[in-house]
Write a structure and sequence with these properties.
With 426 residues, this protein is an alpha/beta fold. The protein has helices spanning 14-22, 35-42, 53-62, 95-104, 124-134, 158-164, 174-184, 197-228, 232-239, 262-269, 275-298, 323-333, 357-361, 374-377, 381-386, and strands at residues 4-8, 27-31, 66-69, 77-80, 113-116, 145-148, 167-171, 192-196, 304-308, 337-341, 366-369, 392-395, 408-410. The chain folds into 2 domains: 4-204, NAD(P)-binding Rossmann-like Domain (Rossmann fold); 228-416, Rossmann fold (3-Layer(aba) Sandwich), CATH 3.40.50.720. It is built from 15 helices and 13 strands. Helix 7 links the parallel strand 7 (167-171) and strand 8 (192-196). The chain is globular.
Length: 426
């Protein structure tokens, strides 16, 4: 029997997932509500930047293993990989998930398997997804199989990690777990860990919450170290020599669809007992403002600031929840002329002007590095600063390791950036 799979949502997770399944013997139909995405994929092209994705999509589209359309079709397995954004009160907006489930109800049949990969709050499978199916006469574990298998991949390495990372599979019942495990065994080479849907939901959230809390610790250390004239990067390096210590690196904040979002899904379910998680979120959310304060401390609001990087991490084009966008807005609100440059981000992704490298530096007084793109590390920085009106660099990502520029500031020497450090010349 032909293995037919339908993937709902063709974004940063859904498209690579669909492509890998299609390259592993499945007949895959990808579903997206954006007609431009559908048209692009059916031409064998991609609409997102991810290492190796363009090649695999071109291959599976040409051999007929992957097609895209806007409405679901009959399949053996349905994978839902739609986003879970925030409501204004930071609770999870499950409208995309519920819409995706409703969209497949007209085509699912007895014996089908439905897997949700979207990141969701605890008990969403049991309290939200399952009731939608029960209402239509489906009984999980009897005439349908339902499981949660959260994605756990790193942008830039998604194709590799889809195959080699361990996967968590949590069914609403033991039969659903086993059936879903068999689906992923067609290509996953890592271990497949069986559990309940509730445990799978919480495990995914805690993976990213752990990292968010750890980064908050590093960011708090940075603020404390500035006040005490201490080098926080050296402190972290020294502390991490302990065999049971692994402090993460500080930065301008936390971005992406996971770290900046997932902790809130735990907080909304039990705000009374999630105090550490809540405080970590507040610390990391404060970092764009901290960066802006360092700029204000150095140069007046009639100055021009160049932002290097808008993506939330290096060498990708993903700007979701990026702290760089918050830095941009806050600088604009403070009266600065701001010129962003990012070699990976396209103009259509943002609602403000992007600049070329050279244009972003003209008449600039300070470069603020917010993303650790490889391109920034490879630049001739003495030539770069020579193009500027004033040659100051604030590196929030530690891109320029052992930089010898005279007017270079990193988190390791912020205490040297005192008021009036920068004497502007116009």
């Amino acid at each position: 029997m032909e293995k037919k799979l339908c993937v709902i949502g063709l974004g940063y997770i859904g498209l690579p997932t669909a492509a890998v399944f299609a390259d592993s013997g499945w007949k895959v139909t990808g579903i997206d509500t954006n007609p431009i995405v559908v048209e692009t994929l059916n031409k064998g092209n991609v609409h997102i930047e991810e290492n190796g994705l363009e090649e695999i999509v071109d291959r599976v589209v040409k051999n007929g293993s992957l097609t895209a359309r806007m409405t679901p079709v009959n399949a053996n397995v349905y994978i839902i990989a739609v986003p879970t954004p925030h409501n204004p009160d930071l609770t999870a907006n499950l409208n995309y998930l519920k819409s995706a489930v409703r969209s497949i109800i007209p085509v699912i049949e007895s014996g089908n398997t439905i897997i949700v990969e979207s990141t969701i709050p605890p008990r969403t499978m049991q309290d939200v997804v399952n009731p939608l199916l029960i209402k239509e006469g489906f009984i999980t574990g009897e005439n349908i199989h339902l499981a949660h298998c959260p994605e756990r991949v790193l942008p830039g390495k998604i194709l590799d990690e889809l195959v080699f990372n361990n996967r968590i599979v949590g069914g609403l019942d033991p039969i659903s777990t086993e059936v879903a495990v068999d689906v992923y065994r067609t290509f996953v080479k890592g271990n497949i860990l069986k559990t309940s849907a509730e445990n799978a939901e919480m495990a995914k959230l805690m993976e990213n919450t752990y990292r968010d809390v750890n980064i908050a610790l590093a960011n708090e250390l940075t603020k404390i170290s500035e006040n005490l004239n201490i080098n926080p990067l050296e402190v972290i390096s020294l502390a991490n020599e302990h065999p049971r210590v692994n402090i993460h690196q500080p930065g301008p904040g936390v971005g992406g669809h996971c770290l900046a979002v997932d902790p809130y899904f735990i907080i909304e379910k039990d705000p009374v007992n999630s105090l550490l998680i809540s405080n970590a979120r507040k610390i990391n959310e404060s970092m764009p403002g901290f960066v802006v304060e360092k700029v204000k401390q150095a140069i007046g609001s009639n100055s021009t600031v160049t932002l290097f990087g808008l993506a939330y991490k290096g060498d990708i084009d993903d700007i979701r929840e990026s702290p760089a966008l918050k830095v941009y807005k806050q600088l604009i609100d403070c009266g600065y002329s701001v010129k962003p440059y990012d070699p990976h981000v396209k103009q259509e992704q943002v609602d403000f002007n992007l600049y070329s490298l050279e244009d972003s530096l003209k008449n600039s007084d300070m470069v603020v590095i917010l993303t650790d793109h490889s391109e920034f590390k490879l630049l001739d920085w003495k030539q770069i600063t020579g193009l500027m009106r004033n040659d100051y660099v604030l590196d929030t990502k530690g891109c320029l390791n052992k930089c010898t520029l005279k007017n270079y500031f990193n988190y390791d020497n912020l205490y040297e950036l005192k008021p009036n450090t920068i004497s502007l010349t116009y």
